[in-house]
Amino acid sequence: MQPFDLVIRGGTVATATDSFKADVGIRGSRIAAIAEGLDRGKREIDARGKLVLPGGVDPHGHIEQLSASGKMNADTFESATTAAAFGGTTTVISFAAQHVGMSLKTVVDEYHEYAKRGAVTDYAFHMILADPREEVLEKEVPPLVKAGHSSLKVFMTYDRLKVDDEQLLNVLQAARDNRAMVCVHAENHGMISWMGKRLVKNGYIAPKFHSISHPRVCEPEAFQRLIACAALVDQPIMIFHVSTAEGAAVIRQARSTGQKIFAETCPQYLFMTKKDLDKPGLEGGKWMFSPPAREASDQEALWQALALGDLQIISSDHAPYAYDKSGKLMAGKKATFKQIPNGMPGYEARLPVVFDEMVSNGRFDVSKFVEWTSTNPAKIYGLYPKKGTLAIGSDADVAIWDPKKSVTFSDKTVKDRAGYTPWKGKTVKGWPVTVLLRGEVLVENNKLRGKPGSGEFLARKAGAAAEPLGRATLEFDPKRNFGAKLR
Amino acid sequence: MQPFDLVIRGGTVATATDSFKADVGIRGSRIAAIAEGLDRGKREIDARGKLVLPGGVDPHGHIEQLSASGKMNADTFESATTAAAFGGTTTVISFAAQHVGMSLKTVVDEYHEYAKRGAVTDYAFHMILADPREEVLEKEVPPLVKAGHSSLKVFMTYDRLKVDDEQLLNVLQAARDNRAMVCVHAENHGMISWMGKRLVKNGYIAPKFHSISHPRVCEPEAFQRLIACAALVDQPIMIFHVSTAEGAAVIRQARSTGQKIFAETCPQYLFMTKKDLDKPGLEGGKWMFSPPAREASDQEALWQALALGDLQIISSDHAPYAYDKSGKLMAGKKATFKQIPNGMPGYEARLPVVFDEMVSNGRFDVSKFVEWTSTNPAKIYGLYPKKGTLAIGSDADVAIWDPKKSVTFSDKTVKDRAGYTPWKGKTVKGWPVTVLLRGEVLVENNKLRGKPGSGEFLARKAGAAAEPLGRATLEFDPKRNFGAKLR
Amino acid sequence: MQPFDLVIRGGTVATATDSFKADVGIRGSRIAAIAEGLDRGKREIDARGKLVLPGGVDPHGHIEQLSASGKMNADTFESATTAAAFGGTTTVISFAAQHVGMSLKTVVDEYHEYAKRGAVTDYAFHMILADPREEVLEKEVPPLVKAGHSSLKVFMTYDRLKVDDEQLLNVLQAARDNRAMVCVHAENHGMISWMGKRLVKNGYIAPKFHSISHPRVCEPEAFQRLIACAALVDQPIMIFHVSTAEGAAVIRQARSTGQKIFAETCPQYLFMTKKDLDKPGLEGGKWMFSPPAREASDQEALWQALALGDLQIISSDHAPYAYDKSGKLMAGKKATFKQIPNGMPGYEARLPVVFDEMVSNGRFDVSKFVEWTSTNPAKIYGLYPKKGTLAIGSDADVAIWDPKKSVTFSDKTVKDRAGYTPWKGKTVKGWPVTVLLRGEVLVENNKLRGKPGSGEFLARKAGAAAEPLGRATLEFDPKRNFGAKLR
Amino acid sequence: MQPFDLVIRGGTVATATDSFKADVGIRGSRIAAIAEGLDRGKREIDARGKLVLPGGVDPHGHIEQLSASGKMNADTFESATTAAAFGGTTTVISFAAQHVGMSLKTVVDEYHEYAKRGAVTDYAFHMILADPREEVLEKEVPPLVKAGHSSLKVFMTYDRLKVDDEQLLNVLQAARDNRAMVCVHAENHGMISWMGKRLVKNGYIAPKFHSISHPRVCEPEAFQRLIACAALVDQPIMIFHVSTAEGAAVIRQARSTGQKIFAETCPQYLFMTKKDLDKPGLEGGKWMFSPPAREASDQEALWQALALGDLQIISSDHAPYAYDKSGKLMAGKKATFKQIPNGMPGYEARLPVVFDEMVSNGRFDVSKFVEWTSTNPAKIYGLYPKKGTLAIGSDADVAIWDPKKSVTFSDKTVKDRAGYTPWKGKTVKGWPVTVLLRGEVLVENNKLRGKPGSGEFLARKAGAAAEPLGRATLEFDPKRNFGAKLR
């Protein structure tokens, strides 16, 4: 047998299906062998007592992006992907965010520049469409999807970003024509705006009123509407950051009809509640994100929705804004909750907090952890089998977890540039002590070994979402509602 | 590296998650390596252009068993497992079938004798309880479960086998006390009996009236009742051979509440309809099984239920009865449909007909095929990771499929002893040309290489059903409804 | 204008639709005029400040009937209908109760004798079928239905009364053939038996364990099964005494499909909970009836089900057993809850306790009170328009309510022969101070004016249930499932 | 007894509950007696063989109103209410239609002028809010509701009329503050706009494409959103002109939760389908209204929804536009379907076409006919008991129907000013041959006896919708979502 550049020896290897003791042999950037008793490699990593998992794939994060209110978020690609790497994630999909009036092509080019300069993990882009005018959809989207940007994102809320139902239908149609996925932030804008104005008018301005300003029903309502639009166009969709039991129930119902609905949730919805916003002064702003965290009963409902396959992914929705004595992103001490930017850092903590609950606490097994945080995002977004698993020929993106290592989150050790962690004080058991990207060590001994710019862009194939769950429910149907009715 | 006893070279290896090109190295009875460019083994199998899959696990088949009407079915363990082996299946779970008045221990001992004498595949037993009297449940069941018989089966219909609701609750409670699974043939007995009598009384006696005598609603009704009983006891259940869209919908609804419901269907429900019973004379009897095959729209609903995870397994419900000029099991030419035994041979055809549709026709991918026919039955019934996957350390049970080989089913080539195949004339693409059991060749060049009795009994651990889908929904809850209410 | 025998002057007349001030003029036994300023009648009743309502129709009560355990209940027709009359009810439908082996004709004849001897209100019979053997269904049922006994009742629980699913289907089919209604006590017998045995075996024998022995799920399960059977036969059914929110939800769902389901509840389910059973010693037995009262949240769900039309009737399920120092029906001080007869007196209190909540407390208006307690039972069971309304030509059965009169229930004033009232100590506002039957005073000044035997038998027409809610959902469909499938 | 001004003699009187033979005695404008054998009145109407019903109440019609595209519809109050009167309707609620920028008070004043000038039936107004700006809601709405305009209407579609979700919430809140009902035209605007543009762009411009441009899902989607908004505010709503089975199912589901949802449908949805639009040239425009008529299966679903109480009213949505050789409202021969005004005449035909099916064809009984077309609209909109029934003291608004009279609709006999009837050629059995308004003859011998302006304005009380179906589900809840959450 040819020699290995690297052998990870004696660990417990896990995929979304199996876990077993084996050595992993790497040649160049790829996995070449999974076996008992491999010959010695040029380099060896002792993984005895450790879990050898595919590197995490985080498909939802905002990097070097303007907030909904027009201010830049805290991270650069360097800081953000460094945080991801320390948390065991080796691939991120962030956003190329168009605002009104912008050329989408220009936006994508700019984000390519940012990423090329700083990324230490591999990366790809969802293209945010805040201005889906005809020329953008007809001229810009097709070549960009072909160039590997096979997912579009739209917002149904936020004054400066939201699309109305007709625009949403246009985006869904453009996605269908180009076999791209459509990701959606789905909350009812009118309800949020109406509630916010009533609250502020009545003097309820503290951060904790943020959760009240997003009434629970704004989520299932928007899901219903989005799903109805997607049904009309017959286009697969990904519903971002599900936060409520009612929202999960809407998704389950729609999937029952065979509609191609995917969905994700995030650690903040699995571990936090609206009570986290209830802090003195401006500090609640640290836990301000949209949709807001809900109740403990929602957490249980979301775990169940994951177990039942209604949700397929746990992403981070990383969206850091610096917090200092002027509040979040210097919103100022007199800021109402409507003026504080929404979002919190998430890249680093995503996998450890989920591992702690799923694997260390035994809520699920390690294969489910791999499936929801790495394999499913890779498959759904067209990165698989290069990313998302430990298989012969796949990229040697590996996170070696020490299941016994305990870590307590602290503001002092954060790798991103938010300046704080919303998980401060939480102790988790299990940590990715060594992380490899394409066969090279990225993180080791709590040090970053990767170089800014060493991350690579991942062109993604279109139509991927059709595949993992079978043709029956998920392939693009060649007969459209529209055409069929005219016959 | 230590040498391999056998190397399967150059095939496409697939698990329930991945598929990739690799060699598979076997030492003794177990898989030792999955890799690129393995060193030459003592023996080599050329798998280029072929799919290298885990051997099938068929958890539902009747061997050397009395029919509901008290007559012996057609197969011995030798003929039945030979048929399974030729169809790519290396593990079967058949039944140890108690009838009224029998000792369960004696029954199990007898089936051990039968199997030891003839089996060429590995095997285990579900224990059928037709007489769940107190001594059986309290004295016999506990040691038998501990001895590896970790699943019980009951019938809700058939005059001589059925349990009533109170008996069903007793069985569920005994299973809960012993952490065993309960498998159920769930149809409403009263409806079937009532319809059958009315039909026969009115002269509707041909085999085709069998399907009418099992009205559709008898399935969802029984599922509802069974699920209510299981909820009362908080006991996981496996619903056998789902045949209707309404039945699948009941299961989906119950799973939505977090109840631990598993379910399977069979190729006859995915590919046949009630029209197959409509043949001249007695021939329809060949397609007589219960529940009967339904409509084309049910087939679509069942595929969708599989895709959505509501059903997890495709088993065969192998139950062969010899057919000759006196009809099925010599029922005689004047037999009404109520007198013809229910069941058809299924071991050999199960995997090829499903592979043909899922993989060759592209309805799903090969990983889903592996999951539903091998990995899921192994995990749910406590055979995993020894069986059900290709992983380092697992038994080297391998089916090597030639995806280009076309085979047409014919009565002349059947390996079981039914004397006919209900798939006669159907051509499938894809066939398991070489089959290994624990590292030894079982089938090769269309010849059986295994010896009668070379199959091994598999003692199964209890409580397995709790594990594959996570603690949240599936573990045995230590707090019982009953106790909780008394506090 | 011809003179009136009786004028009820100056009251507020109410029907299921309207309420308005008017005089009511009666000639002979029937209502002849509803008008302003009627001429003076031969007799006058001053109804100023009072409500003039149709006499109550109570379609569910047991009189001179053997309990499930074979003992006679407390009432005679005289005592029972006297209690009903004092409570504002002028028509009852009680039971002619067959036990196993009996001739139904003989049973009906006997109950005719009992009633003729004692009844002070008008009456009709539901025929209980505990032994629906072929000769009963084919020979006895048709002429009895033609003779005006147009409703059958079956029990799905109680050891000595229950029918199994096949018997249930036979009864439904016989009802369909004769256009009779089928009323059902629907609880899952196996669950109740199983729970009861486990409780008693573990020493939980006090009356309060009665409610635990009827687990909630035994109601929706039995409803589902009953509804499935009725769908198979395409036969309208009346589900008796709904007690749970889940049961009501099953009914609503089935009605959504257009199936002809009617249902009732009783005051004990609207005002009592399982806590009423929790009394020292044997006293809880006074509140022992089946199904048992449930939770406060079920009360709300049942009111809502009435408001939504899912339930159409509030009946009493009058079933009195004498209570003395030996306990209920002399069950004895060592009786387990399984040995205490089920049932409580209900004829007298039904209307006052419901009026108090609906009208005096304002939960609904007086028209809804009339609809659920008089008009709907009359329409559904074939007594309308003779009974159940105040319309020209209808029987002058009138209850004149004083909405300001307060009455506190006491054991001392009960008119039936149970010897106690389960409503003891409850004060209601509103009481039927004068009651007329066919134009004659039945109760006045707290005195009975009717004579034993003055009540008349009411022959009821078959097929009535088809009418009140329209052909679309409720008429007997001439095409049967069974025949249709054979074509 | 005092003499009667008018006696309707010998007919069959029907209310929403009862029907029976009786004479009806009228004094002045009100009903004074319903009885057998009334003394002779000053005037007599022979009603033998006829049905004596309350005059119809039609709560949905557009009179002297600008269309969505800004053009005046065909009718004046004189022509419109004349058509209504000939069809047996004695009360209409039409619209006072604000457009953007207008003062609501001014609009209402103008409609008062129009109506006073011409109406021959009694009338009231729903106030359409196309511009619910703060001053309108806070300054104008409260006094107008107090003045008897206790219902608001909004559109969720039409470019010039629609409100967005935030405006909708503001209207719902204003209604709640003033205890007014909110009526809604609920269709998803984005879907309709998107489909319309795609159709026109592709050359699909004929009238028949109108139905395709309103995809089915645009109705249940809008219902879901509207219901979610109403739930947030806890405000009762009336959903106008339900057209689809899916829409009806959404309503049923929402009512199951206890939410205060009322709904209506119209004859066009019960008797027409989208095929009626498929006529040569511009003629399909005659059947162009929104939502469009759907399929035969929807008709069945709507009848069932009425039977189940999910819908409570059959209104006309009278909205006539003149049709001549230049097409509908002179849209011109080259008009695309987007340029043709939506609406058809409906006042005259509403009751006869519904009577024909419900009563003459026997689908339901006459009481249901009265309930859905007269009693329920009167109760829900605050006109009861003055209107909507035949009770002592109610207005003597009476329609005397000859159930044997057959009439064939023809363009030549239409009373409104559309110039055509969409029911042309249809023959109905049953016709209101004599119509009374407040005791005066309005129509007789096919002649109008009323004078323009003799109709009276009906000030309606607020909060009425709480009453007919009981406090439990329908009263205005004093605890608001909003306030509750802040505690």
Q: How would you summarize this macromolecular structure in one to three sentences?
A:
The structure is a homotetramer of 487-residue chains. With 487 residues, chain A is an alpha/beta fold.
* Overall geometric form of chain A: globular
Q: Strand fraction band of chain A?
A: 15-25%
Number of continuous helical runs of chain A: 14
What is the helix content of chain A? 25-40%
Question: Which stretches of chain A of 5+ consecutive residues score pLDDT under 50?
Answer: 467-487
Supply Rg of chain A.
22 Å
- Gap between N and C termini of chain A, in Å? 62 Å
**Assembly category:** homotetramer
Number of strands of chain A: 19
- Rounded mean pLDDT score of chain A: 92
Largest interface: A-B, 52 and 52 residues
Structural class of chain A: alpha/beta
What features would you describe in this structure?
The structure is a homotetramer of 487-residue chains. The first copy, chain A, has 487 residues and is α/β, with parallel strands linked by helices. Helix content of chain A is 31%, strand content 22%. Chain A has 14 helices and 19 strands. In chain A, the strands form three sheets. In chain A, strands 1, 2, 3, 4, 5, 16, 17, 18 and 19 form a nine-stranded mixed sheet that branches. Chain A is globular and about 70 Å long. Mean pLDDT of chain A is 92; it is low at 467-487. Chains B and C meet through helix 4, helix 5, helix 7 and helix 14 of B and helix 4, helix 5, helix 7 and helix 14 of C.
